[in-house]
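Sequence, please.
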């Protein structure tokens, strides 16, 4: 019984920390999406800016709900929370670099024979 009294608060603190980190990732993706021009999204063929705004905005909303909920369908490690983190991660890993390069006129990592 005493072990459960010690483990339960630690477990809750770990889940809260994971939810906080996930929310930070989702907010970063949303704010980055807001700051790029819609023409950059179209130039790279990565869907439209409105699509990514809706996806990252929904992910951020789910992250906020997940942070303050105590379980259930929107729980910290629930399916929707996981989907929100995946959506934000896809934006940051795939879309962000392409849109960032399109916004400044191409990639800087190009030598005389192509990218490196």
């Amino acid at each position: 019984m005493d072990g459960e009294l010690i483990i339960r608060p630690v477990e809750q603190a770990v889940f809260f920390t994971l939810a906080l980190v996930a929310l930070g990732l989702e907010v970063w993706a949303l704010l980055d999406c807001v700051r790029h021009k819609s023409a950059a999204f179209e130039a790279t063929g990565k869907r439209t800016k409105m699509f990514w705004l809706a996806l990252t905005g929904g992910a951020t909303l789910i992250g906020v709900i997940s942070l303050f909920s105590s379980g259930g369908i929107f729980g910290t490690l629930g399916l929707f929370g996981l989907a929100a983190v995946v959506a934000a991660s896809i934006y940051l890993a795939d879309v962000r670099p392409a849109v960032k390069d399109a916004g400044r006129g191409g990639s800087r990592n190009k030598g005389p024979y192509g990218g490196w």
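The first helix runs from residue 2 to 35.
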